[in-house]
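Researcher: Here's a chain I'd like modeled. Treat it as a single chain, no partners, no ligands.
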Amino acid sequence: MKKYLLHTLFLLAALGAHLSALACPACEKQQPKILRGITHGAGPQSNWDYVIVWVAVIIVIATLFFSVKWLIRPGEQSNLHIKRWVLDHES
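Model: Modeled as a single isolated chain. Structure tokens:
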């Protein structure tokens, strides 16, 4: 019973979040074609706004890639690595 209640609450929350993310008619008129109906507020003020967003997206994707890569295969094998010093002197 709890499982069904939790699933129902989750679906209602997801539906509410989706509906609140849609733009109102007044905001839709302010947005460029590519963003129309997706977001609220004023649209980008210049082409530099797109450049800034795409640079940020590239940085986030690169950070995620290298974080996962180095989490899976750390690569340091040396006994002199600082990780070894911290782990050995912990006690």
